[in-house]
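## retry 2 of 3
previous attempt timed out at serialization; input unchanged, resubmitting
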Amino acid sequence: MSFARFVMRVALAVAFLAFGIGATQRLAFAKPVPSPLPTPEAVNSASPAPGTTASPEPSTTPLPIGSSSPSPFVSPAAATPTPRLRGLRLTTSASATLAGQSTSGGGQIGPEAPGFIAGAALAPNTPYDLFSSAPQVPGFVGIGTILTTATYRTRAFDFSVTPGLGSVRGSITNASYWGENLLPTLNPHLGSQALPYRVAFPSHAGEDDGTGVRLSLLSGSVATADGNLRVRGGYFDLAQTARFVFAQPLLTNVNPAIAYAPPETLSSGLPGSDLWQPYATALPLHGVDVVAKRGTATLEVTNAALPSLPGEAARMTMGSLVFDRGEGTTFTAQVLHATTSGLPFVTTVPFGTNPAFTPFPQGVLPTSTLDGQQQMIAGLRATFHISPALGLDGVAQVGRSWYHAEPVDRPGTEVPGGYYQLSFVKTQGRSTASVDLLRMEPRYATMILPYGVAENQWSTSFAWPGQWLKSNYQLIDNSVLGVNRQGYRLRYFIDKGPLEVHAEYTDLRQIEEETTQTSTQAGYVDGFYLPQVPNAATFGRQKRFALWTAWHPRFGDLTLDIVDDELFRPFFASHPEDRVSYEVPQAVVTYSRHISRAIVAATGLGRYAMKGAFSEPIDFAERLYFAGIEIQQTPKSVILLSFRRTAFGGIATFPSSTRSPNFTGNTFIVEQRVQL
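## retry succeeded, writing output
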C-alpha cells in the first residue's frame, strides 16, 4: 500500500470517527477534565517538588487507557460542592494516529542483531533513539482508539464501566513504540499476543507489518455517592503509593509531543496545549483495587497482575495507609508481596540456576535461569514541617525488603535489603532548595521482572540511564538512585517568573563490591556495572549535573535543558575489561510559542552523546532536530503534527565488525483527538 493511500485511509477514519461520535450528542455527555501533565519532579523525585510543601504521595500517573474512572479518587472534603446529577452519563475519548518512519545507514542492523533476535542478552547499540531507548525502524502505521465510560448514578452509589475499541494496521514496532500507549488488550508491553509482534530490525517499510483489532471491557467500578469507598476491577492506576515501595512500570513507548527532553530532565513540563495531555505515563495494573477513606485516613488494598512475558506471570498484593493531617503533614505505611510463576527465564543475574559468566568486549556478562521468585517490601514515609516560620520541611523514608527464589545457585544466601532517605526542603518566595541523603542497598527490591517485550530497553552494557537490568523493570522508582548506591543530591529551583532556573548535583557511590562471588548470592544486584573477580574488585562512582532554564519573553518561550552523567570505576592493569570511565552529556534547546489561544508550536534541537570507555572505547552521539504544532479545532477536538530527525554517528561497539553504526531516521506523527 502506498504512503498516499495510507494517509488517505487514516484521514477518512478520523473523519468518520469524529462524525460518528458527534452523532451521539443527544445522550448526556459529561466532558472529562484533562489530567495535568506530570512533571519529572512529581513522577521521579524522592523529595517534594520545589515550590511545594511536603505532601502525601498519591499516584502520580494520569489514568491509563482502560481506567474505570475519569478522575482520581477525591475525598468529599476536597471536592467542590456541586449538585449531584443522577442517571446515566457518558464520557468518550477517541484518537486516531498516523506514525511513519524512514531510516538509512549501516546502523539499521547492528552486528549484535542476529544474536539478539535469537534470544541473546546483549542487544545492538543501534538503531535505537538514545533519548527514549525506542527502536527506530522504517514503516507506517495507523492506530485508532475509542474509550467510553458509562456511569450510572443513584442516590447512594455510582456504577461505572469502560469498554474500549482499538485497532492497529501497519508497522507493529512503530505502533508499539511511537504512538500512544496501546489499548491494554492490544499492548505487547503488557504481554498481549493480539499483535504479531517480534523483535526485528527491518531495513524497508512493510517488513514488520501486521493488523490487530480488539473490542474489550477494560474496567468497572462501584463507589459510594460520598466518595468514601470505591471498588475497581480491570485495568487501573493506583490512587496512592510510596514509590520506594512500589511504582508502576514506566511506559516504553514515546508519547506523541511537539518537543522533547533528556530522560533525566529537570523540566517543569514540555510545551503544549492544556488539552493535549498524555493518556498515560505508566503501564496499568490489572486486577482488583479497593480505596476507602475515613477522616484523615485513606486505605488502598490491591491485588493485580504485573506486566510479564508470554508464558510467565507476576502478581502483587499490596496495602497502603496514608494519614493526611493537612498542610503537608502526612504519614504512610505500605506493604507489598509479589510473586512470579510460569516458565523459567534466562536473565542477566548469576544467582539463579545454571549461572554463567560470558566474556564480551564490554566485560563479563552474567546470566542464569530464574523461577519461583517472591518479594516482600515494607516501608514507612513521613512528610512534615521542621520550621514553618523558616519555610523548612522534611521527608523521611525507610524501606525493608526480603527476597526468595527457588531454585537458586546458592540456597540460603538471601539477606534483607534496606532503603533510607532523609530530605530537607527550604522554600522562600520563588526559590526552593533541597538536600536528599539516599541509600539503597544491593538486596533491596531486587525481584527480576522482564517486560512483555524483549526490546523494551536496549541492553548494551553502557546504556544510560541504566539504573536497572536491561529489558526488565524494578518494583520501585529507581530514577533518583539505583540499587547498591548511596550518596546525596542537591537541588535549587527558581519558579514562576520571566526566568526560571532548575539546577541539580548528585553524587552516588557503590555500597558493596560486585564480584563473581557476591553476585551469585540470591537477591544481590548491582543495576549497572558488570562483575569483577574478587581479588581485583573496586568501587564505582556516579556524578550527575543538570540544569534547566526557561526564559519567557513576549515573543515566546526559550528553554535550555542540560544533563551530564559521569561514571567511573577504577581497575587493575591486569584486568582492563573492568575499566569504566565515561560521560553522557545531553542537551536540548527548545523554542515554543502560543501563536493564538488555539495554536501552540515548538521547534528545537538536541544532542545525546557518550564518550570514554566501558572496557572498550565509547565515542558516539545522536543529533536531534524537531518541530511540531498543536491545533485546537473545537473545544472538544485537537490535532497534533510532529516531525523529528535523528542522526547517529560514532564508533562500533564490536571492533571486529566492518559495518558502520551510523544511521539517520525521520519520524512523522499526526494524531487527532476528540473528547465528548
